[in-house]
Design goal:
The chain has 143 residues and is mainly alpha-helical. It has one domain. 71% of the residues lie in helices and 4% in strands. It is built from four helices and two strands; from the N terminus they run H-H-E-H-H-E. The chain has a two-stranded antiparallel sheet. Helix 1 runs antiparallel to helix 2, helix 2 crosses helix 3 and helix 2 runs parallel beside helix 4. The longest helix has 27 residues. The protein is flat. 15% of the residues are buried.
């Protein structure tokens, strides 16, 4: 019964995360480009959507798996590197999302789009490395 509940909660969470991605995809309108800034707008939108895919994967991993690279078995931070890693992770959750939200309020958007494209690419590779190189252990729920 516990395994069934875990499977259902994982499936439900994954469906919610995919639905959230589809809503963001629809609101972002990735195939609609600005007439003057086609390349930078396309790069920003594409890099943000790629960033969002890997962020959703990392969030899924953090919900249902224990990360032994950042935390020990008691839930304590492993070392100073883990604290720095966690701060970078928290900034990486906020900064690209904030960048995509306030982009229409910026007057000179060409350098802004390029800057946030590089931020999105950086965090895409950071989260990809975190997802692939960390030691993940499946969480078991006690009855």
């Amino acid at each position: 019964m516990i395994i069934l509940n875990l499977f259902l909660s994982e499936t439900f969470t994954l469906m919610i995360l995919i639905f959230l991605y589809l809503i963001i995809f629809r609101l972002l309108k990735p195939f609609k480009f600005h007439t003057k800034r086609k390349n930078s707008t396309a790069a920003l939108k594409f890099s943000y959507l790629c960033y969002l895919v890997i962020l959703i994967f990392v969030i899924y991993k953090f919900i249902f798996f224990d990360n032994r690279t950042l935390f020990d078995s008691n839930g304590n931070m492993v070392n100073f590197f883990a604290i720095v890693n966690l701060v970078i992770l928290l900034i990486g959750i906020v900064l690209p999302n904030l960048g995509i939200v306030i982009r229409r309020k910026i007057k000179n958007r060409e350098p802004y789009n390029i800057f946030f494209t590089f931020i999105n690419i950086f965090y895409f590779f950071y989260f990809l490395g975190l997802a692939l190189l960390s030691k993940w252990i499946i969480k078991f729920v006690d009855a």
